[in-house]
From TrEMBL:
<dbReference type="InterPro" id="IPR007483">
    <property type="entry name" value="Hamartin"/>
</dbReference>
<dbReference type="GO" id="GO:0008285">
    <property type="term" value="P:negative regulation of cell population proliferation"/>
</dbReference>
<protein>
    <submittedName>
        <fullName>TSC complex subunit 1</fullName>
    </submittedName>
</protein>
<dbReference type="Pfam" id="PF04388">
    <property type="entry name" value="Hamartin"/>
</dbReference>
<dbReference type="GO" id="GO:0032007">
    <property type="term" value="P:negative regulation of TOR signaling"/>
</dbReference>
<dbReference type="GO" id="GO:0033596">
    <property type="term" value="C:TSC1-TSC2 complex"/>
</dbReference>
<dbReference type="GO" id="GO:0051726">
    <property type="term" value="P:regulation of cell cycle"/>
</dbReference>
Length: 127
């Protein structure tokens, strides 16, 4: 999955109506995430989720483990500042938090928290 074209093909296969194909592709993504510590794959998954609302991608994102938690929170933080993606990205964050990941304690120190507070303040002053 090192090449972007490969990732794109696999992403489209995640939404396959065939359960076996989805399971195989999900396993391939999880295997890649366990061996690749960088942010690129997580960023691609978040972008794809925002474009498609893909439930299999949501499942992968909500089950991320360290060190990908930082990449996910950074990407969410990036999108919280954009009005066009704010609602979708907050929905993703809600899904993640509801599952109470082992790294939930990191939320209080993440740059995302001040961004969320700033977003709430802005919303409060507009109303």
């Amino acid at each position: 999955m090192a090449q972007q074209a490969n990732v794109g093909e696999l992403l489209s296969m995640l939404d396959s109506p065939t359960l076996g194909v989805r399971d195989d592709v999900t396993a391939a993504f999880k295997e890649n995430l366990s061996s690749d510590r960088g942010p690129m794959l997580v960023n691609t998954l978040v972008d794809y989720y925002l474009e498609t609302n893909s439930q299999p991608v949501l499942h992968i994102l909500t089950t991320l483990q360290e060190p990908h938690d930082k990449h996910l929170l950074d990407k969410i933080n990036e999108y919280v500042g954009k009005a066009a993606t704010r609602l979708s990205i907050l929905s993703l964050l809600g899904h993640v938090i509801r599952l109470q990941p082992s790294w939930k304690h990191k939320l209080s120190q993440a740059p995302l928290l001040p961004s969320l507070l700033k977003c709430l303040k802005r919303h409060e002053t507009v109303q």
